[in-house]
């Protein structure tokens, strides 16, 4: 164990040195830099540093965008007493009220993988899967075999087969290597051409000379299809996990199952279909082509393409929002008590009366290339409106918060507990070449931010911790909101966004806000955060001077002192 820590410390220090040497010859202010280091990018120029403590070379991404308007609205005055305080979100997206009994929080990659297989085998009408990519190992092949088996059963059923399979992946990531996501799925297209659709999203920002010059892997930094949603008939799994063996074994993420939720399943089916319609369609011979009449993402007019994509996605959001508003009005706003009573008695007689919702699901979409910034607006509003003594737990596998998010964390009243991956559990740890320096670069970003926290004397209110678990990597992202005086969260965000520049500005992202009044579900949500922070250590500064060369020390967290006795001394030098 001691040898492993020494090796980790040496690799982190060596990576930091490599990172600085690499950055020394990088030209500043070039848009193409994001093509090489998009995952680590924030904004290229954040203006003059208001506190003169941020290192300019690390701010690699372009575009200074205007602030996003904060959206607030009072609760609906016609709703029953006790209706939750986050109903303003339905001004932007559809609101789906469900029973908490339909929500199951998963905890492990193995549980996630087994659930995927069970759900695929049980599907009768639809399988819709959106992911960054599909891996090429044995576990991924088993998923494809499950799809083939289920499609075969549907084909042999009497009459025309009802089952439809729609898969949405990213074009660049899904095409990487000779054996890739495309080659894994082509047999399904060849065997079931009328039932299977494979769409490959290609960002409109990767085009022309840029597309010709940037090599494989690095071209993925320009923009990706990053949404992760897996649905089977009326059951929906929201996650940040991709369809790859690491995510089925020892790469920690988050997962939630929404059971028997047809309206939510319809929404995400329509969303994936909308993105699929503006994506390249995989053919049986491994070629791709656009749907007839559709503007090409990198050969056609970029503005026209983005306008069409915006219109298609917003049609899905707005139509679902209208449907749910009508349902909400019918349920809660009936002004005729008599007709409401008759309707209720009729429902009871037919046995179709649904339990009154105690949990609300809000899909939050972020597609900045298409001018859609809903997730950003809601996240910023949640951070802005969090009251004094409220606690926000936030986790990301890649710590590179946008400037707006950092400013809100440093300038608002709530307490923050931020969990990020230690270098040893970063997916790039131990990689060769420039990629091997990426964990050290994240440490540097982390240190820059925490140095500012310390200079503002906010260490008690804003605490950073690093997730560390032997033999595992960390990919979880999300947010938990604990109201003042409460030991349980009433809201969580779960899905694909990492709260960084890429998520906000470049990729296609989706997550859901889950708001619940049910104590049992709140306890489930709390247990996940409790487990994550239980594997963490506090980040502190030693000999803080306000400079970027201070050392970062990791000590054991008192959060779970039953597992840790005393400090474990890992020093990381950023020199």
TrEMBL record:
PANTHER family: CDP-DIACYLGLYCEROL--GLYCEROL-3-PHOSPHATE 3-PHOSPHATIDYLTRANSFERASE, MITOCHONDRIAL, CDP-DIACYLGLYCEROL--SERINE O-PHOSPHATIDYLTRANSFERASE. Functions in the biosynthesis of the anionic phospholipids phosphatidylglycerol and cardiolipin. Pathway: Phospholipid metabolism; phosphatidylglycerol biosynthesis; phosphatidylglycerol from CDP-diacylglycerol: step 1/2. One of its GO terms (molecular function) is CDP-diacylglycerol-glycerol-3-phosphate 3-phosphatidyltransferase activity. The lineage of its organism: Eukaryota, Metazoa, Chordata, Craniata, Vertebrata. GO terms for biological process: cardiolipin biosynthetic process. This is CDP-diacylglycerol--glycerol-3-phosphate 3-phosphatidyltransferase. Belongs to the CDP-alcohol phosphatidyltransferase class-II family. SUPFAM superfamilies: Phospholipase D/nuclease. It catalyses: a CDP-1,2-diacyl-sn-glycerol + sn-glycerol 3-phosphate = a 1,2-diacyl-sn-glycero-3-phospho-(1'-sn-glycero-3'-phosphate) + CMP + H(+). GO terms for cellular component: mitochondrion.
């Amino acid at each position: 164990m001691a040898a492993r820590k020494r090796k980790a410390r040496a690799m982190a220090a060596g990576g930091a040195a490599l990172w600085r040497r690499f950055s020394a010859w990088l030209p500043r202010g070039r848009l193409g830099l994001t093509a090489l280091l998009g995952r680590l990018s924030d904004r290229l120029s954040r203006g003059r540093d208001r506190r003169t403590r941020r290192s300019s070379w690390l701010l690699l991404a372009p575009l200074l965008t205007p602030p996003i308007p904060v959206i607030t609205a009072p609760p609906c005055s016609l709703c029953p007493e006790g209706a939750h305080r986050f109903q303003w979100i339905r001004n932007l997206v559809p609101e789906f009220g469900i029973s908490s009994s339909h929500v199951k929080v998963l905890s492990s990659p193995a549980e996630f993988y087994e659930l995927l297989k069970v759900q695929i085998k049980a599907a009768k009408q639809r399988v819709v899967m959106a992911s960054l990519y599909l891996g090429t190992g044995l576990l991924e092949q088993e998923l494809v075999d499950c799809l083939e088996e289920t499609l075969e059963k549907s084909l042999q059923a009497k009459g025309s087969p009802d089952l439809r399979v729609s898969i949405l992946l990213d074009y660049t990531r899904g095409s990487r290597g000779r054996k890739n996501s495309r080659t894994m799925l082509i047999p399904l297209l060849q065997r079931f051409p009328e039932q299977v659709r494979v769409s490959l999203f290609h960002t409109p920002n990767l085009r022309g000379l840029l597309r010709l010059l940037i090599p494989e892997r690095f071209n993925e930094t320009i923009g990706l299809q990053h949404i992760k949603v897996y649905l089977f008939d009326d059951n929906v799994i929201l996650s940040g996990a991709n369809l790859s063996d690491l995510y089925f074994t020892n790469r920690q993420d988050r997962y939630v199952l929404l059971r028997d939720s047809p309206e939510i399943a319809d929404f995400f089916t329509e969303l994936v279909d909308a993105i699929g319609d503006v994506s390249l369609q995989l053919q049986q011979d491994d070629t791709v082509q656009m749907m007839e009449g559709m503007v090409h993402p990198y050969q056609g007019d970029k503005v026209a393409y983005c306008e069409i994509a915006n219109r298609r996605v917003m049609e899905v959001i707005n139509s679902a929002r209208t449907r749910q508003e009508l349902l909400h009005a019918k349920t809660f706003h009936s002004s005729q008590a008599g007709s409401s009573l008759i309707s209720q008695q009729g429902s009871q007689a037919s046995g179709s009366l649904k339990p009154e919702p105690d949990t609300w699901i809000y899909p939050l979409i972020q597609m900045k290339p298409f001018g859609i910034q809903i997730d950003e607006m809601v996240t910023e509003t949640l951070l802005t409106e969090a009251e004094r003594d409220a606690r926000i737990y936030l986790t990301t596998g890649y710590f590179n918060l946008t400037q707006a998010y950092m400013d809100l964390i440093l300038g608002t009243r709530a307490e923050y507990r931020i969990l990020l991956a230690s270098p040893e559990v970063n997916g790039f740890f131990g990689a060769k070449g420039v990629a091997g320096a990426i964990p050290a670069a994240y440490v540097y970003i982390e240190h820059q931010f925490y140095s500012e926290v310390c200079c503002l004397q906010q260490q008690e209110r804003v605490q950073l911790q690093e997730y560390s678990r032997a033999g595992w990597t960390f990919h979880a992202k999300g947010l938990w909101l604990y109201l003042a005086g409460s030991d349980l969260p009433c809201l969580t965000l779960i899905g694909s966004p990492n709260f960084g520049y890429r998520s906000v500005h470049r990729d296609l992202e989706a997550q859901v806000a889950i708001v619940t009044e049910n104590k049992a579900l709140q306890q489930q949500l709390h247990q996940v955060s409790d487990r994550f922070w239980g594997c963490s250590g506090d980040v502190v500064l030693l000999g803080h001077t306000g400079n970027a060369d201070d050392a970062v020390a990791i000590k054991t967290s008192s959060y779970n002192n039953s597992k840790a006795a005393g400090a474990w001394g890992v020093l990381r030098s950023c020199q």
